Structure prediction request, 231 residues.
Amino acid sequence: QSALTQPASVSGSPGQSITISCTGTSSDVGGYNYVSWYQQHPGKVPKVLIYEVTNRPSGVSSRFSGSKSGNTASLIISGLQAEDEADYYCNSYTSSSTFVFGTGTKVTVL
Amino acid sequence: QVQLVESEGGVVQPGRSLRLSCTASGFTFSDFSMHWVRQAPGEGLEWVAVIRFDGTREHYADSVEGRFTISRDNSKRELYLQLNSLRPEDTATYYCAREGPGSTWSHFDNWGQGTLVTVSS
Prediction:
């Protein structure tokens, strides 16, 4: 159960779009459409942004979107805002009926 | 609204045991699978365990398999995590989290506030 690979940090200016990648294997990301993304502000509880690759829970801004190609999933944040500065984690169901998180990405708004 | 409230953690010596509980309200607890997720200080999220809504299936991360046990009491609306043979590397904030609605296991849609467990002599 190795953690999924995410870039340690991504930055962008307000209004820009950024993409966070999440790379796994055919036993997790590539094998199932059960990839989800979480946002965590410092000292706060994680919040789900995207589930099942592309679905957005009610109440989550449409500026957040997800996609997947092969063993890599992506979270796209469009129209970057100061409040988007946080840590982001991907997660995937695995062939062992377990789950695995990504290594986490710190987003900085310049 | 959905509420998940974990019991207080605490400081435990290596090799000892601790049981965490999570009390649910605001939804039909027996309809939802439940997870435990942990986060070591300053580190990322780590999935720990899941239990099916009816308690008939459970799965664990390799790092805790054989030492931790997840269970539930639907009549009390409570989720548990028994932590045995604790190690310093088990030091973390432990979150209980609800699985999203539906029959498949895919994501965690509601989280408790978390409880800190510190393993130290």
Remarks:
- The radius of gyration of chain A is 13 Å.
- The beta strands of chain A are 9-12, 18-23, 35-40, 47-50, 64-69, 72-77, 86-93, 99-101, 105-109.
- DSSP finds no helices and nine strands in chain A.
- Chain A has a mean pLDDT of 97.
